[in-house]
Specification:
heterodimer, A: about 475 residues, mainly alpha, 19 helices, about 0% strand, B: about 50 residues, about 55% helix
Chain lengths: ~475, ~50
Amino acid sequence: MEFGALGAYLILLVWIGMQSSRGIHNTLDYTVAGRDVAWIVVLATTAATMVGGGASIGSVSGVYKHGLVFALVTCAWHMQLIVTGLWIAPRLRQLNLLTVAEFFGKRFGEPARLMAIVSCLIFLVGALVAQMVAMGTITETILGIDYRLAVVAGAAIVIFYSTVGGIRAVVKTDVLQFVVLVSGIGAASVYLLAKNGGFAAILQVTGEAPFQFTTDEWPAMRLITLFFAFFLGEMLVPSYAVRCFIARDPQSARWGVAGSGILLLCFLPVAIFIMGISAQVDPDVQQAVLASGNADSQIVFPTLMRETFPAAISGIMIAALIAAVMSSGDSCLSCISTIMMEDLYRKFVDRQASDRRLLRVAKVATLVAGAIAAACSLVYRDIVEILEFVYDFWAPTMIAPFLVGLFLYRKNQSYAATLCMLSGFISVGIWRFWLGTPGDFSPALFGFLVSIIVFPIALLLTHNLPNSKMFQPQQEQRP
Amino acid sequence: MMPIWLLNIWHGLSVAAGSLVLILLCWHALRPGTHQSQAEQPEPLHPKNR
């Protein structure tokens, strides 16, 4: 029964990919869905992208171990979407961009654009590998399928529909995945709460510890720094930026992205809290976690699903979990292919390439990047470690110049922005790898603080210097 | 400690928000014209639009 539900769902994804390929006529269709996506669809695809392996499996494990405090920290992800949607998304949509790096080139010149390409690729490849690891872990834990086989099969499906249908297929499958996700997680939270007799009954069993705002292990200071690290960690990442690019108009971008944040803030933290504390009171889950020998284990959520629900419902739950992971992975894959096509191939290999040729490059890039990520996920299996690594580097390198370029832009900022990006990147490396993250202070937050200190100082020193040719903002129009 | 009544309200809000968005999606999907493909509505591709 479980296999049947999951199989039907996966076949549906493949069918959607094939259907979407008919609507692909040019690179604009393939990379930004013709910039014609309605706000409610932007909302669904953004929310589906947000809820990946970290926000589902990782968060339930976090609540299982730390209690409510972890669910509260995850609110930062959703608040970030609200802020991005309300104030940033409409501006981004108006610029008619294809990639995030293009924005940096148009504002601060070639060096900033190259650094943005590197940052985007580090983030996207890391996030894609993490999602593929999550896909393999879920399938292995719940269905008992070999991890390698699960990764290869899951990756093959994601790569197939992303390659043939581009962002159009990604958006359509995201909507399906969103429906499965919201129905599955929503139903699971209601069922588990009813089964355990409500919050009051759970409180009787667990005691007050999991319901506290702060704990000994998670004092207020750690909570605040983690909150900001989560807030900044995913801000303006390519997977969300492209949701602004595909919207029909600036208002669709605003309410699609902000709406997904509002929905998720209402919906997800309390749902994962219920799942996490339900796992705490479930002896079977506790036994499985103990048997795995790791209290931080990523198996809490999948085991809870399997132990709690009858086969038919757990099949849908498994589909919901895999949906969460696939919808985040396919977005990364789509963004990587756009970067390969627009930022690398068209910029460095063939500036006059025809649209047909660029489309072929994007498809090949999707295929190759997906295959490489699947191969990496067979070697690196720690989702949290991979995600921490990519989040640490994103915010310090990208956020400050991104916001300056959107809200406080002047033509004399190219040197300062480039130095700001460089200082953020290097300071994270030093803080994380050389100093070993002193005081448990988030490397992302440290690097971000360095970057916002460096920017005004660098601007003060360089604002009178004329931009050299390399640092000139790029005004190029595509052929 | 987070009050139980607040958690109950939050959970109610969670279910209501999820249901509302699913209804809006259904309404969007069933609205006439939603399924018209790009190919049926050709639009000139201005360079600035790319």
